[in-house]
Amino acid sequence: MLLRTNIMALEPDQALIHMVTDVISESHLSYLRFSGLYPSSWRVARMGKSHSKPSWALIWTHCVAVLISALAVVSLTDYTMYFIKDIAKMEFFRFMTFTLRLALTEQTVSIFVIFIWKRREISELLLDMSRILTWMEKRYSLRLRRIRNVSALLAFIWIGFWLGVHVIGYITFQIQEDLSTLFGFTRQARFLSLVGAQVPAYVDDIVGGATLLINTHTELVAATFVYSIIALMITGFTHVLQDLQKVAILPSEKEQVIAVQKACRLYLRFRTLTAKFNKCFALLFAIFFSRDVWSFLVVYAVALRIDKLQGPEESQHMFEYRKKKDFDHGRHDIIVGSIGLGNAALKHLLCLYCHITVRDIVMVLEELEDKIESQDVQAEVTEMLSKIQSCSGAISAGGVHITTESAMAVLGMLASYAVIIYQTRDAALGDQEYAKKTDLPQLAEMIRGLMQNTSTSDIKF
C-alpha cells in the first residue's frame, strides 16, 4: 500500500524524500538531481524553515553549465561580428538559424536561473502535491503508481530519443567532413574569435558539440519534469470529472450531495496546485513559448531556403562545396528546431488537455443542474460552478494562459507567417530565374553606360 502511515516516524530529510517521491518516481528525481535542476539537500523543502540554500554541489553544477553555455555563445562571435558590421545586408534565413542557436543557449542559462530562483516554491509545490496524492491514494493507488512509473519511463525515452537524434545529426551534418580525414580532424580552425585563438578542428568540434548537447539535454530534462507534474494535475481534474459523472446515478439525495462536496474539495485543491504551478513556472513557460515559436520560424525558413547563385569569382568546385555545406548546416538546424517543436507539441497538448478537462467539468455540472430536481444538490452544484473561472486549469506562460483560444490565435499568426515567407520565396525564385536567363556582364555594361550619361544608342545588348 502506497499510503505512508509511518512517514512522520522517519528522519525529517527521509520523510521529505518519501513525500517528494510520491509525486515523481525516485529514478526520475535522482536524474533531476544529477542534472543539477533539483537540490541534493532536502532541507530546502522544509515548510516554514529558513534552510533554503542549495548545496555547493548544485551551485558548482550550475556554474559549469552556465560557463559552457557562455562558451557556446562566444564561439559564435564570428557570425555576430559579421552581422554587426554589415547588418543592412543580413541574410534572413541565415540570421534565423543563428538566432535559434543563441536562443537555445540563452534558454539553458534561463532554466538554471529559474530553478535556483524558484527552488523553494518548487519544493513546496511538490510537497503540497504529495499531501493531496497521499489523500487520493486510498481510492486511486494503482492508477497513481502507474502514472508515476509511466511518466518516468516516457521521460527517459523522450530524452534519450531526442539526444540520440541530436548526436547523429551533429556528426552526420556538422563534423562528418572533419572526421573523414586526419587532416580535417587536426586542421587549424577558428574558435573564440573574440581573442583570435586558433585551435585544432577536433577541439572546436568537441566543445561545439558538447555545448549544443548540454543545452538540448537541459531543455529536455526541464520539460519532462514539468510534464510529469502537469500529468498528475490532469489526473486530479479527471478524477473530479469522473466523480461528478457518477452523481446522477447515485440512489439517494444525501449521497449525491456528499459526492458533489467531495468533488468540489478535490477540485479546489488542484486549482490551488495549478495556481502554485503557474507561480513557479510561468516565466519558464514564457521562455519555452518563445523558443517554440522561434523553432517553427526557423524550421520553415530553412525548409524554404533558396541557395545562392554562383558568384562571378567563385569556382565550380567551391560553389558545389558551399552548397553542400549550407545544406548540411540546414539539416542540422532543422533537427535542433524539430526538438523544440516536439517539446512544443507535447507541452501544448498536455496544457490544453488540462484546461479542456476543467471545461468538461463545467459541462457536467450544467447538465446536473438541469437533470437533478433536488434543491440541495442544485445548491451544491451552483456553488461549485461559482468557484470555476474561465482560466481554471489553464497553465500560464508569462501572464498569458494556454487555452484553446490562445492556441488558435498563435496558429493563425504562424500560418500568416508561413504564407508570407512562401510568397517571398516565390518572388526570390523568380528573381533567380531572371538572373540565370540574363547575361549579367551585359547588364553591368548597360548600367555603367547609364551612369556615364551615354545615350541609349551607345548601350549594346
UniProtKB/TrEMBL annotation:
**Residue ranges crossing the lipid bilayer per the database entry:** 56-75, 95-117, 150-173, 220-241, 280-303
The answer on whether this UniProt entry bears the keyword Transmembrane reads yes
> Which keywords does UniProt give here?
Membrane, Transmembrane, Transmembrane helix
Q: What is this protein called?
A: Gustatory receptor
Please report the organism this UniProt entry assigns to the protein: Ramazzottius varieornatus
Q: What is the lineage of its organism?
A: Eukaryota, Metazoa, Ecdysozoa, Tardigrada, Eutardigrada
